[in-house]
Amino acid sequence: MKTGLFFIIGFGLGFVVNRWIIGYGHIAIELFFSAVLGLAYALAYFVDRPEWKLSKKLLISLVGIIAVQVVGTLFFDSENTLLALIKFCVVFMSYNVVASLSQRKSLR
């Protein structure tokens, strides 16, 4: 339930930033980048479980990266796909770095 909420929050914030601050000028690209940010934020929250092994967390993040790659390749050019992958990785890793700095090793 909360993972979906994190996707909506990430998507909403990503859309506001992409649409009105950065302004790519193409609504499909802005929606794609927003969905990528929402997915990264939701997946980072989803795998933020101290009892899970690192290999399981990495596999789930790899599935997210592959999904972004496939959708980006099908609908957009390689430049936008690469930019989306970079955004995904930055958001995902930022969440995990902040979580690792907390005393509980989790932000849940």
Task: Describe the structure in your own words.
By secondary structure, the chain is an all-alpha fold. The chain has four helices and no strands. The chain is globular and about 40 Å long. The chain has one domain. The mean pLDDT is 89. Helices cover 81% and strands 0% of the residues. α1 runs antiparallel to α2, α2 packs antiparallel against α3 and α2 runs parallel beside α4.
Précis, in short:
The longest helix has 24 residues. This protein is mainly alpha-helical and 108 residues long. It is 81% helix and 0% strand.
Question: Helical stretch count?
Answer: 4
Termini Cα gap: 13 Å
In terms of structural class, how would the helical and strand content be classed?
A: mainly alpha
Overall, the morphology is globular
Number of domains: 1
Name some characteristics of this structure.
mainly alpha, transmembrane helix, 108 residues, 4 helices
Layout of secondary structure:
Layout: H1 2-22, H2 27-46, H3 54-75, H4 78-101
